[in-house]
Amino acid sequence: MTSLKLCLATQLYHPYYAGGAMRYRSYLPGLRQRQICTEVFTSTPSQERTEKFRSGQANHQTQPGQLLPVETDQNSPVYRVQLAEDRAWRRVMQYGQALVDFCQQPDTRPDVVQFLPLPPWSVPALQKLRRLHIPLAYAYNLINNPQRSLAGRLRQMAAQRLQFPLLDCIIVQSSVMAKTLRNEGVNGRIEIIPNGVDTVRFAPTSNTSAREIIRQSLNIEPTAPIILYVGAIEPRKGSDLLFDAWAKLAPEFPQAHLVLAGPRLDQSDPMLAHFHRRLEGIIDASGTRERVHFVGRVGNVERYFQAANLFVFPSRREGLPNVIMEAMATGLPVVTTPFIGFSNELGQPEEQFLLAEHDASHLYEQMRRVLLDKNLQARLGKNGRIWATAHLDIENILDRYAALYRELAETAKQRN
Predict the structure, then answer these.
(1) I need a labelling partner for 75 at 20 to 30 A (CA). Which of 52, 238, 279, 364 fits?
(2) Structure confidence at residue 50 (pLDDT)
(3) Is 80 exceeded by the pLDDT of residue 236?
(4) Is the torsion defined by CA of 8, 13, 19, 23 positive or negative?
(5) Does residue 290 sit within a domain?
(6) What's the pLDDT at 403?
(7) Residue 118's domain spans which residues?
(8) Sheet harboring 292-294: ordered strands across?
């Protein structure tokens, strides 16, 4: 099998936090096994973004528009262009031109370019890349926010009408996302490829010592129930709903602990100051400060899944959340909400997970139901694991990505 060169184009990439880029980063070793050699083309984040996610310093000595020394991540080269500290649209334009220059060079010209985010000001770069006859794919990771202002929605739709005809393929994670795009008037090619989960890494464990390491690090008793949440602490993820439900649950389960793994955007984003105060007020009013654990971003998140008794994800808007699939693959019972973008690619309520309305009382009831019923815990955990291995295993997903990239490259070669 001949190798194919893929350019993963994303303005934010490790070590800077971006959910979609984190997922594709985990795909790189598997793609390489399939002879898809990936080069990442990324940029320096704005200082505002760096401070928001508390992800290190964004200061570099390179002039804007110039490439930093090549990095290596997951055995793949990472090319990072220095962007000026400027308005977002100017940064997008500067990044786009740098990407075009990169793709024009014989040594780095890719067979396929895969975009993760596609900001509204990407059109000039897309047009120039089309003239290079390089096939372009875009991973549409999150349904547009219906609660945005009318002006914001119109800008988004106008951008899509200019961008999407320039793409060879739009990759979505679920049938719901595909239907949403069709309803918005997208007529081009759409491929549904669910997110993949590593069912070897995320698996049930009988290793009690591994479970106890996490519990001991948090000073949690071996038999105490752990309710786990993984994701950013922010309004879209329903963090307020989770804390309201926890406040109802905690008195009934005085040994239970709530563990939250993910960046605290409520602390670092000035726009979320009121939201942060509300969360802190709920914790203080519940009198459970010592039982609520914010552990931040963790590299060994599978250990937290294995140590927990229940996973709760009360989001308001998503694509196909990896964290739900990871919890299911670990055999952990899941309670989630019917977020915007929810689809049956995750399975069926009452079979693979429980569904709670966006209401703190109902979320509390579903969490309580799981904690009180060992048989329900076992059934949901078993069914979730079976579903994840049968439908969401990363090996099958990577096969589909590799086949798509090869098809796009071959079609472009024949066309040109």
Answers:
(1) 52
(2) 63
(3) yes
(4) positive
(5) yes
(6) 98
(7) 4-196+394-415
(8) 292-294, 257-261, 226-230, 310-313, 334-336, 354-355
CA torsion sign for 350, 366, 204, 396 is positive
**Does residue 313 share a domain with residue 186?**
no
Say whether 149 sits in a helix, a strand or coil.
coil
Helix, strand or coil, per DSSP, at residue 314: coil
d(CA 356, CA 297): 26
How many CB atoms are located within 10 Å of the residue 345 CB?
Answer: 18
Query: Quick one: what percent of the chain has pLDDT higher than 90?
Result: 80
DSSP string for 115-146: ES---GGGHHHHHHHHHTT--EEEEE-S---T
Find tokens 């594709």 and name the residue: 24
- Is residue 4's pLDDT more than 70? yes
CA distances from 321 to 3, 264, 389 (A): 30, 18, 16
Same domain, yes or no, for 307 and 164? Answer: no
Check whether residue 65 and residue 192 sit in a common domain: yes
Q: Which of 200-214, 259-273, 352-366 has the highest mean pLDDT?
A: 352-366
pLDDT at 207: 83
